[in-house]
Amino acid sequence: MERGSGCPRLLLLLPLVLGLSAAPGWAGAPSVDVLRALRFPSLPDGVRKSKGVCPTDVAYRVSRPAQLSAPTRQLFPGGFPKDFSLLSVVRTRPGLQAPLLTLYSAQGVQQLGLELGRPVRFLYEDQRGRPQAPSQPVFRGLNLADGKWHRVAVAVKGQSVTLIVDCKKRVTRPLPRSANPVLDTRGVVIFGAHVLDDEVFEGDVQELLIVPGVQAAYQSCGQKDLECEREQKDAPQIPKPHRAQRSPKKQPSGLHKPQNQEPQRQPTESLYYDYEPPYYDVMTTGTAPDYQYPTPGEEEGVLESSPLPFLEESQ
After folding, report:
1. Residue 176 phi, psi dihedral angles, 5° rounding
2. CA torsion, points 310, 208, 165, 184, in degrees to nearest 10?
3. Nearest-5° angle of CA 75, CA 79, CA 84?
4. Residues near 273 by Cβ (< 8 Å), separated by ≥ 6?
5. Which of 133, 171, 247, 267 lies most in the core, judged by the most C-beta atoms within 10 Å?
6. Which residues have CB under 8 Å from 257's CB, separation 6+?
7. Under a CB-based contact definition with an 8 Å cutoff, are residues 84 and 225 in contact?
């Protein structure tokens, strides 16, 4: 009786054990900091520090010589999540239309990508080649290449993708992918460029995260705004510039008496602004950017581009 009674219990536990073993490796996985994974803090060639959105934020300015890539499996050892959030804080060169992030398979197929500019394009292709090119989501009516800071969040869940810009504009497009989409992690992740394409990202990037699930895309805006607001309140207040008023000069009696003329108007006090120079002043077409590249003694490390398996095979 004891042996017989134990068998049903094992049968009941068997589906649970199989379910746990079949669970994807990214279930409950933490977020992936793409900038840190690509060694942005070490300031590789073509990358230097710049000011971020908030006073204490640190961003990175990326110029054309930058070649930033890494094996996809290094960022996602347990596989790429099915539903995910892509969070970024960027400021692109005005008039630019270029990729921010691209994920390639081992065969050189572009599986995932976010292209900023006017319009905004989201690229996705699973193991079955879905969705096809005509069904790739395009977000028209948005311009993210205006030289201003933007918070861009992408939420991918099921058969749809939602783009959230500056925590105000929210647009959803269909994403007719497979029921169980899989992205190959044997390829490479490339920042700001396409393979065999001259158009590259130029601008500032403060944040670039990929988080399993879509809640992060909807919750990040409020948290970031509150943090920035708190920083501004805690920052010491800088007194406004003050002009000392001169005492009126006494005129000697009988000399230089005022004539019949219109009174002179006193000049209005000028306004004072505290702002950094416009972004496009140093990145206007036809002018050379004022990028200062670190000297060999100042560089902490140079990140070489990861080899592309599919390019080596084709040669």
Report:
1. -75, 70
2. 30
3. 85
4. none
5. 171
6. none
7. no
Q: For residues 115 and 119, what is the distance between their CA atoms, to the nearest angstrom?
A: 8
The Cα 31–Cα 141 span in angstroms is 30
Rg (CA), the chain: 28
Residue 23's pLDDT is 36
Mind listing the pLDDT tens digit for each residue in 276-312? 333 333 333 343 343 343 444 444 433 344 444 444 4
Tens-digit pLDDT profile for residues 32-69: 999 999 999 999 999 999 999 988 899 999 997 778 99
CA separation for the pair 314, 276 (Å, rounded) = 48
> Which residue matches tokens 């009674």?
5
Q: What token pair was written down for 148?
A: 């201003």
pTM attached to this predicted model = 0.65
- The two tokens of residue 66 are 């930058």
pLDDT digits (tens, 9 = 90+) for 112-161: 999 999 999 999 999 999 998 888 999 998 999 999 999 999 999 999 99
Contacts of 286 (CB under 8 A, 6+ apart): none
